[in-house]
Amino acid sequence: MSAIQLRSSGNLVVTVRLTLQPGRDDDLIAIIRSAPKGALAAIIRESMRSGVQPVHAVTEDTLDDTPLDWADLGMDV
């Protein structure tokens, strides 16, 4: 379901149905659940403008096989 309506004021009203999947969309779900009453549209607009920083998931592609250099970590062992 989606609809686009142009109002006489020039405002464009967009209505969509959005399905968010736990695990994949946790950052978006958190934003929506934390929205104060009456502020959901404004929060979604701001999220679309600024982007949402996803939580970095660790996968095989992101694992670095380079051994840690303890000196670089500022630790004496």
Structural features, described:
The protein is of the alpha+beta class. It has a domain at 17-54. It has two helices and two strands, in the order ββαα. It has helices at residues 26-33, 40-50; strands at residues 2-6, 12-16. Strands 1-2 form a two-stranded antiparallel ribbon. A hairpin with a 5-residue loop joins strand 1 (2-6) and strand 2. The protein is elongated and about 65 Å long.
Keywords:
77 residues, alpha+beta, two-stranded antiparallel ribbon, 13% strand
Q: Structural class of the secondary structure composition?
A: alpha+beta
Form type: elongated
* Percent of sequence in beta strands: 5-15%
Largest sheet, in brief, is: 2 strands, antiparallel
Biggest sheet, strands in spatial order? 1-2
Question: Nutshell version of this structure?
Answer:
The protein is α+β, with helices and mostly antiparallel strands.
